[in-house]
Amino acid sequence: MNPNLEEVKEWLHKARNDLLSARILIKHDPPVLDTALFHCQQSVEKLLKGFLAWKSTQFEKVHSLTYLLDLCEVKEPRFVSLRDQIETLAPYAVEVRYPGEVLDITQEEAQEALATVEAIWDFVLSLLPYEIRP
């Protein structure tokens, strides 16, 4: 295995920016919760892609957290413990981005989603070498 360290760092950098964006949008007055939750989903998606790049695992260009998680579990079985948490973020890839069926998102739900993302970050970063972390 010879991961492309620059690619891994780029995924992690983008994931971190999505996490920071979610934090800012949740704290904004007024809060922008739908977009914050989209960034929560995006942060985890890019974080999983960064882990897969670290493991030199090819993946399709998709937004499916379940698909990416399946690939991560093959490389690190402990990912299974995150499945329920990660799958709660999956709807935020599309449902909050477009007009139509509007999700009524509360501040509490947004805070829970953010806490979920931060826990997933802690887990994934614990699997990676310190020198490539953002």
**CATH-derived topology:** Four Helix Bundle (Hemerythrin (Met), subunit A)
Radius of gyration: 15 Å
Portion of residues in beta strands equals under 5%
- What sequence of helices (H) and strands (E) makes up the elements? HHHHH
**Would you identify the regions where 5 or more consecutive residues have pLDDT less than 50?**
none
Sketch the major β-sheet: none
Shape: globular
Instruction: Enumerate how many helices there are, as a single number.
Output: 5
Query: How many beta-strand elements?
Result: 0
Mean pLDDT: 91
Structural class: mainly alpha
CATH superfamily: Nucleotidyltransferases  domain 2
CATH class: Mainly Alpha
Break the fold down into its secondary structure elements and pairings.
Layout (H helix, E strand, L loop, with lengths): L4 H23 L5 H22 L10 H11 L7 H7 L17 H21 L7
Helix pairs in contact: 1-2, 1-5, 2-3, 2-5, 4-5
Write a short abstract of this structure:
This protein is an all-alpha fold and 134 residues long. The protein contains 5 helices and no strands. The chain starts with a helix and ends in a 7-residue tail after the last helix.
Structure write-up:
With 134 residues, the chain is mainly alpha-helical. It has one domain: Up-down Bundle (Four Helix Bundle (Hemerythrin (Met), subunit A)), CATH 1.20.120. 63% of the residues lie in helices and 0% in strands. The longest helix has 23 residues, at 5-27. It is globular.
Any descriptors?
134 residues; mainly alpha; Four Helix Bundle (Hemerythrin (Met), subunit A); 5 helices; 63% helix; 0% strand
